[in-house]
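Thread title: Can someone regenerate the structure for this chain?

I was given the following input by a collaborator and told the matching structure tokens would be attached. They weren't. Posting the sequence so someone can regenerate them.
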Amino acid sequence: MDGTTRKHSLQEFSRILFEQMRTVNSGIAKLALYEFRYGLENIYPIEGWESVRLMKTEDLERKVRSRDFFEAIQLKPREKERIVLDEMIVCLTRMLFVGLVQGTYSAEWVKQVFYFDIRGFYFLPRTQYFTESVVAHFGGKPFQSFTPRQKDLEPLQDLGYLDFQQANAEIDHAFFRAIQKIITVRGTPILITLAGPTAAGKTEITERLRAVFEQAGKKTTTIEMDNFLVDRDHRDDKPMGKETSHFALFKHSLLEILRGKQITIPRYDFIFATSSHDLDGNLKPGCVPIVIEPADIIFLEGNFPFQMIEIAELIGIMVVYLTDDPIRLKRKWKRDIDYRKKYEPTYFRNRFFKTQFLRAEEIYRPLMETCDLVVDTTGAALWVTPEIAAVLNAAANE
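Best answer:
Regenerated them for you:
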């Protein structure tokens, strides 16, 4: 194949792919073809598109539902001292591109199993959060459903909080009303745990919920679970748990504040990864702890407490605030790359790809199987247990 023929072939490949990708992600329609080709150049295989071998759809689905696949993803693979996209991620994206052009993979199937991030210019598998066991836990269907306005956000390459908040207005309002009704029935002081994946909107919704209560004359406070971490040198990169936290002090603090008492908790230094307290729970010389006053509504930030029986039984309302991966990824591009400048962009792409499946399996689906409410902002649905549904229905009939 001479240079002219090869160039024509590449142009034809990209033209066909461009049209197919407009179906997979509506945001592609906002790109010019030459802009799409810019991104395609970074994923082009040295041996040419014809070198890409396709897997059967059922085999590919099985592969991206395997824990081993995600555990094998490297966060910082390098070429010439530069972090590059993990080879398995690259291969997946190339495979889907070629399959779309050849017609082996339909755009409908690709969109069902994967989503395409335009800014990262790569495909990621969709994470299934609402498994059969999760749905069964909530009685088989949502308690309330609204118009899923996050669909309007699909064409965006990144997403700021104001647009995100506006899309969630109905479901957030329903969530606020539900929490207020539950607290009216259960009384105060009450401990609320609001968990969920990164960039789901947990911090912002907690602040807004606190404002709602304070306007109603309730006193609120927040306990950050991360402040109970022990020094990083003693954690061995293990996740939050009894072995990596001041657990006895944590439980004692919750019991005391629920009795209406002031508490003094450790202060964790995130820069130096050290705690103000030693392993025995004693304040280190020269360190200053955090003093928290008693309140009517106590918000406990962090995913860990759900999974500990000793702590879960102290929590009055357990909530998972959920936003689907494609929307969270748009939020993280804007928040963590543009504003915080927290990550090197390619490391960020590898990290997000690797961790969503693993964290859903280890943390979020188990939380959803035990919590009281799930606020599904993407599906615009409020899921509650039959017990909570009875409380809400009774309150509505009064």
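The two ends are 79 Å apart (CA to CA).
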